[in-house]
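Subject: for your reference before the review

Hello V.,

The reviewers asked for a structural picture of the protein, and I figured it would be easier to keep everything in one thread rather than splitting it across files. Below is the amino acid sequence we used in the manuscript, unchanged from the supplementary table.
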Amino acid sequence: MSGDRPSVPEPLELVLQLMDLRQHDLAAEQVRLLVERDDPRAQPTLRVVRERVGGLRGPERSRWDSELRRLSRSRTAA
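And here is what came back from the structure prediction:
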């Protein structure tokens, strides 16, 4: 046994995969965890998610818009 751990996707990769699968609640939870942990990968992830959200329509777009606003407020309050 070499002790190698299985490959774990980067947070951005995981979020985009979840969005592609229309698992927006799970994707939003992953983004929220990055922001709450003050993870250095949070900002690049948020930037890409905002771009991706721009192409959504309907309830998914509304859900993401409100989630991104909430995350933005929590970042500035911290």
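For the response letter, the relevant points are probably these. The longest helix spans residues 58-77. The two ends are 44 Å apart (CA to CA).

Happy to draft the paragraph if you're swamped.

O.
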